[in-house]
């Protein structure tokens, strides 16, 4: 067995075949013929001096040597892919890929896209909305906007942009019925389940307890996502315990109102996050500056209410 490494094409053919346990599927993935893939694997076996696969009637199995080789080869190609993606992203300075939760994307980011595009016509902004925390390298993400406590990963640049709070919100028509917190009991309450991970939680029970009238009845429509609950409130379906970040524009336009002054802190914030060093790249730095300017109005909105600290 030679100390010289075999050709990368042979290792790539082996990695794909070992992952799929199928020469045909590996050939399809690599866009080569099955005969060409078999030739590459045979060249690897000749180089090492032992078979990597047991050829069965309609399947293949790794030999003992193949099982020893497979993890290292897979890890090696994964590392190469990550390195290649990092270089590719750095060279693509005109593309900025941002990930955020679906509610924040729908209610805050997407409506402001035109503003960013006007101010930065040379940057192509791409969204990746989802609740899954994406990996910056593997998922080709430049910047993330994350909601929670966060800020404990030393490998990441993390800057708070919104200190979240919630308050009862509803249409002006419903707001005429609410003068004091107890009046909320006469309205349909819209519940949202996407903040259950917060401690203390951000529910109607928590709000009723904070203003001294708890607990809430528990009745009313439930939504898995906060933006859906906000949409229902906009349609006049009831009162929502609205989060400032998702509703600032609706409040400014008068489509939703806050008939009460008492609000509660979420004890969580939105943070703009990226790998350390990425924040200085020109297009990333411009996006961060833009986000900070755009979120300043939410901080000013907090001055109009009385926020109860539940710690």
Mean pLDDT: 90
* Total DSSP E strands: 11
What kind of oligomer do you see? Answer: single chain
Low-confidence stretches: none
Major β-sheet, in short?
Answer: 9 strands, mixed
Shape: elongated
Helices and strands, in order, run as HHHEEHEHHEEEHEHEHEHEHE
Distance between the termini: 66 Å
Number of helices: 11
Helix content class: 40-55%
Helix and strand arrangement:
Blueprint: H1 8-20, H2 23-30, H3 34-48, E1 53-55, E2 60-62, H4 64-91, E3 95-100, H5 102-109, H6 113-119, E4 124-129, E5 143-148, E6 156-169, H7 172-175, E7 189-192, H8 204-210, E8 222-223, H9 226-234, E9 239-243, H10 244-253, E10 262-275, H11 282-301, E11 306-308
Parallel strand pairs: 3-4, 3-5, 7-8, 7-9, 10-11
Antiparallel strand pairs: 1-2, 5-10, 6-9, 6-10
Helix pairs in contact: 1-2, 1-3, 1-4, 2-3, 5-10
Brief summary of the model shown:
The chain is an alpha/beta fold and about 300 residues long. It is built from eleven helices and eleven strands. About 40% of the residues lie in helices and about 20% in strands.
Task: Summarize this structure as a short list of keywords or feature phrases.
alpha/beta, 11 strands, two-stranded antiparallel ribbon, 311 residues, 11 helices, 9-stranded mixed sheet, single chain
Structure description:
There is one protein chain. The termini are far apart. With 311 residues, the protein is an alpha/beta fold. It has helices spanning 8-20, 23-30, 34-48, 64-91, 102-109, 113-119, 172-175, 204-210, 226-234, 244-253, 282-301, and strands at 53-55, 60-62, 95-100, 124-129, 143-148, 156-169, 189-192, 222-223, 239-243, 262-275, 306-308. 31% of the residues are buried. The protein is built from eleven helices and eleven strands. Helix 1 crosses helix 2 and helix 1 packs across helix 3. The model has no long low-confidence stretch (mean pLDDT 90).
């Amino acid at each position: 067995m030679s100390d010289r490494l075999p050709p990368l094409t042979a290792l790539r053919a082996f990695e794909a075949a070992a992952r799929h346990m199928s020469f045909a599927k590996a050939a399809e993935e690599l866009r080569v013929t099955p005969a060409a893939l078999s030739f590459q694997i045979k060249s690897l076996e000749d180089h090492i001096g032992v078979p990597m696969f047991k050829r069965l009637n309609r399947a293949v199995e790794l030999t003992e040597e193949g099982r020893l080789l497979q993890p290292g080869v897979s890890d090696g190609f994964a590392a190469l892919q990550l390195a290649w993606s990092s270089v590719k992203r750095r060279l693509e300075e005109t593309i900025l890929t941002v990930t955020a939760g679906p509610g924040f994307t729908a209610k805050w980011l997407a409506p402001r896209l035109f503003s960013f595009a006007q101010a930065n016509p040379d940057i192509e902004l791409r969204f990746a909305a989802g609740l899954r925390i994406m990996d910056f390298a593997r998922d080709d993400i430049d910047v993330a906007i994350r909601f929670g406590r966060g800020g404990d990963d030393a490998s990441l640049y993390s800057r708070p942009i919104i200190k979240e709070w919630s308050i009862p919100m509803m249409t002006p028509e419903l707001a005429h019925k609410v003068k004091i917190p107890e009046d909320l009991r006469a309205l349909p309450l819209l519940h949202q389940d996407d903040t259950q991970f917060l401690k203390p939680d951000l529910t109607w029970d928590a709000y009723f307890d904070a203003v001294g009238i708890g607990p809430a009845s528990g009745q009313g429509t439930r939504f898995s996502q906060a933006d859906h609950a906000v949409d229902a409130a906009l349609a006049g379906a009831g009162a929502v315990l609205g989060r400032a970040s998702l509703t600032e524009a609706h409040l400014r336009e008068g489509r939703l109102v806050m008939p009460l002054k008492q609000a509660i802190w979420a004890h969580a914030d939105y943070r703009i996050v990226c790998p350390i060093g990425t924040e200085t790249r020109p297009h990333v730095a411009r996006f961060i500056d833009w986000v900070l300017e755009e979120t300043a109005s939410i901080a000013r909105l907090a001055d109009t209410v009385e926020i109860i600290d539940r710690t």
